[in-house]
Hints:
By secondary structure, this protein is α+β, with helices and mostly antiparallel strands.
Amino acid sequence: MHEKCTLQQSDLPVEVLERFTHELDVYSIDEAFAAVDRRTSADPEAMSVLGRTIRDEVRRLVGVPVCVGIAPTRTLAKLANRAAKKIPVFEGVCVWPATREAWREQLMRRLPVSEVWGIARRLERRLAGYGITSVWDLATADPAQIRRCFSVVVMRTALELRGVACIGPEEDRTGKKDELIVSRSFSEKVSTIEGMRQALSIYAQQAAARLVKHRQVAKSVQAFAGTSHWHEQQHYPAVRVPLPYPTADPVMLTRAAHLLLPQIQEGTRYARAGLLLTDLHAAEAHQALELFRHVHEDASIATLVDAVQKKAGREVLGLGYGGLRPGPAWQMKRGLLTPRATTHWDELMIVRA
């Protein structure tokens, strides 16, 4: 399955989920948290109906199976989702408050602590040193002692296992996600400054599109390139460019990326390049800075380009080198690419009767 199709298909279930909640937090490409209103959360049967409806609607409208876990906290919801996946009797929907207390305890005693959201292998070993080896052990541990011996993050996890909500919509076990990377290995080595300029332009445009999609802006750009590890003449240029203010403007991102070009050695065969955007923030939080924006950014170029590409295709419109069609020779080889029937008319399956 190729990236474009995967990303598009992951957006479809999200659109269905948005019909059932006032607050949706897309955690990953195949995972999301949805808030349940107070009236529904007070009625276990209503929660069961909601879970089954979500499961059935995503299957009907998108064609993919999903499992639903409903619980008072995010950590318990992840645990309930695992039960919905692994235990056939739930048929894909587990409402944690509706299950028997004895059953919940039995499940938590059987599951190793590594099954808890955010407990990695190294932390699992440290917990084992304190006699905490199962989910139940962590849930019943003294929160104050957990904080003293580990961290406030692990303490929150223990409290969440007890049903005390401690983790907000924009938090996870590693902190807020504040990085975005666009990087590819070239199918053909790039050995000219102009070729690298073209690659960086395209990657900057792709990065801007992702920022717009997630309603974010970036304050810092790092551009990098590199030769193959097996190449005799190795070179790994990189530059970090702080932006004057947080932005998703493709023009500014492209200009920042091009500051890598003075380090590019003409004739050196580069195998890879990319952009790393850091210090990301919600776009809405920086509307007060609109008076200081550039003229082209006031015109919302990033949003306009993204809208046109969504309607007419990614290859139809681009900025500078990012708008070249057909694509450059160094782009990823896709000889085994899955047919893109959802985005390309010429790749629809043909049926002859």
